[in-house]
Design a protein that fits this description.
Elements lengths: L5 H11 L10 H30 L7 H22 L12 H17 L14 H4 L1 H11 L4 H4 L2 H5 L2
């Protein structure tokens, strides 16, 4: 089976390997997880891509307005995530879920983009993340300690800023 879409992959894995459940143990938990996944897909992802893509594609000069317009939206989403993880280890429930897995890569990509030389002109206010969003940084660090995390982190990200 070949599945190129991350949400489809998570749904497949949840059925194929039900422990731990990525989409919750109860209908209520599944609903909260799906809401968090959709919040990430519909709000964080578009805002983040407004910053990530121009920086990664070397288009910051021609798309400067897009980057500047995305900054307040990104911070609104990060503030919402900060509120959620403040006092909680995970975005939904007591264990990592599809919500965490769907959200984490966009935060990590945002931070990678913010670390690029061309990002300095935009005053993104993302690095270091813990200065502005300490609970979100703690959540991020919890993810990096998960078993197998190192195998999932792209090797070229380790060497490139």
């Amino acid at each position: 089976l070949v599945l190129p879409e991350s949400l489809a992959i998570m749904a497949y894995l949840d059925r194929k390997f039900p422990e731990p459940p990525l989409f919750g143990r109860s209908p209520e938990e599944a609903g909260r997880i799906w809401k968090a996944v959709m919040d990430s897909e519909l709000y964080l992802q578009p805002a983040a891509l407004g910053i990530i893509l121009p920086i990664f594609l070397g288009q910051t000069e021609e798309k400067a307005d897009r980057v500047k317009a995305a900054i307040p939206d990104v911070h609104a989403e990060l503030r919402a995530l900060e509120t959620i993880v403040k006092g909680n280890e995970w975005l939904v429930g007591d264990a990592i879920s599809a919500a965490d897995i769907a959200t984490y890569p966009f935060l990590e990509a945002l931070l990678r983009a913010a670390g690029k030389e061309t990002a300095a002109a935009f005053e993104l206010g993302l690095i270091p993340l813990g200065d502005r969003y300490p609970a979100l940084e703690a959540w991020r660090q919890r993810i990096t300690t998960l078993p197998g995390y190192d195998r999932t982190y792209p090797p070229h990200w380790r060497d490139a800023a």
